[in-house]
Amino acid sequence: MTKLTQSTTWKALQAHTSQLPHMRELFAQNPQRFEQMSVKSCGLFLDYSKNRINDDTLELLFSLAKEANLTDKIAAMFNGDVINNTEHRAVLHTALRSKAEQEIIAEGANIVPEVQQTLAKMAEFVESVQSGQWKGYTGKAITDVVSIGIGGSFLGPKIVSQALRPYWHAGLNCHFVANVDATSICEKLKGLNAETTLFVMSSKSFGTQETLTNTLSAKEWFLAQGATQQDIAKHFVAVTSNVTKATEFGMDANNIFPMWDWVGGRYSLWSAIGLPIALLVGMDNFKALLDGAHQMDEHFANTPLPQNMPVIMAMLSVLYGNFHGSQSHVILTYDHYLRGLPAYFQQLDMESNGKSVTLDGTDVDYSTGPVIWGGEGTNGQHAYHQLLHQGTALIPADFIMPLQSHNPLGEHHDQLASNCFGQTQALMQGRTFEEALAELSNSKLDEPQKALIAKHKVMSGNKPSNTLLMDKLTPTTLGALIALYEHRTFVQGAIWQINSFDQWGVELGKQLGNDVLERIGADQDATELDSSSNALVNLYRQGKL
Ligand SMILES: O=P(O)(O)OC[C@H]1O[C@H](O)[C@H](O)[C@@H](O)[C@@H]1O
What we know:
It is built from 22 helices and 13 strands. By secondary structure, the protein is of the alpha/beta class. The strands form 3 sheets. It has a 6-stranded mixed beta sheet with strand order 1-2-13-12-10-11, sandwiched between helices. A 5-stranded parallel beta sheet has the order 6-5-7-8-9, with helices on both faces. The chain has a two-stranded antiparallel ribbon with strand order 3-4.
């Protein structure tokens, strides 16, 4: 057994959680519950009162955090200590949104000047593309950006661009290509004009198969439209930490935007990986995004644990995963612009905390990262919310909603908000058998039928949710929101004593994919794999069933 599950606090939490009354009762007992269990910071408001907690639960959870040396671990991350111990790297995405006058040391040198230089290079480029000064090979301004990248080099830019649609520069559009499935790039290139298209190739390693293949195909398409090799520099730029490889590939040295080893892929949208965002929303808005994240960094680094928003959210997730057997967490965005956020948080959290050994290699004897999923409200209410209300699994939920819409139209936003709040209320209070029966009092059914229907209408309630509000979705509030979830992920990893910053499972996929590719292209059928894999490779080689 690990020290964590042996600890007095862990055992106390096990005993405590099993005897806590229903949330209905907790609300009835304490009229101050909402005031006491809500927190506001960085333009975000978190109501966490609809959780299976009372003061004792919180005290135990914060004790657990203290025993995990959380405060020191937070400081170690911000200080640039090598906390990614399997890849021997510092974890400094927070430096990307630091202030110019800060000094942050990684591998013996202050990295803030490089960060600022890259921001300046981005600003110059964004300005020249947006103003039309940057010309394509026939002298026309750029109208379309095709962003090529995958994983962390794709999802952040895509989701943030989507979320900031109201801030887009008129006359510029962006298309994202990630999948190596040719359908993705072929469909995106249909209807584009090579003369006015700019390709942004994003790959930290400059070695990811999907991205290299898509970039080569983009180059072929570009040349096939009548452009020449010399024209490439006007239409292809790269973001990478591997400048040598990018130059060897044929990227013009002036068109390479650097990033660094100390930025993890899924934490990289704040670096030049965010170039597609900056091209769409302009550099001022990109800097506002960084500023929102910086505000959350400050809050996270300097706020006592019981008022610390990422810590509160993380400890609640620990509570459900480790003490209530919950294996899943749902993110429900009541804002169409934020419809992609669940997928982004899924990558962030599942790639970070899908781990089974502690930092020192001991097998864990407790659950780590849950399955993260979700979608936009109210759509989900007509689908999977049924399981949230009446299924057997306990799935804590985060409801996220801006108070003001970018598109105020009639009663739409009032209806959206009432659905959001109505769902959290229903999840919390549920419906008792007596209430269900009372609702049927005027029906023509006989008593046994009423009782049967009432039984089906019962909802146990006591289903936890957080509600996160902001005035309006802006670059700043979005930056704070994303940083909030980054730090929430970090805190959970700290409690579980895992490395939230490597991804060996994903690496295995890359490795095996390359191995199988060789066998597909070999002169003879595959024989050395397991029988299923051999047969599948050979069926593919045949090309038909
Ligand atoms: O940016 P690249 O080096 O091309 O890597 C793209 C992605 O590759 C893998 O999937 C990693 O697990 C991700 O974290 C990374 O973002």
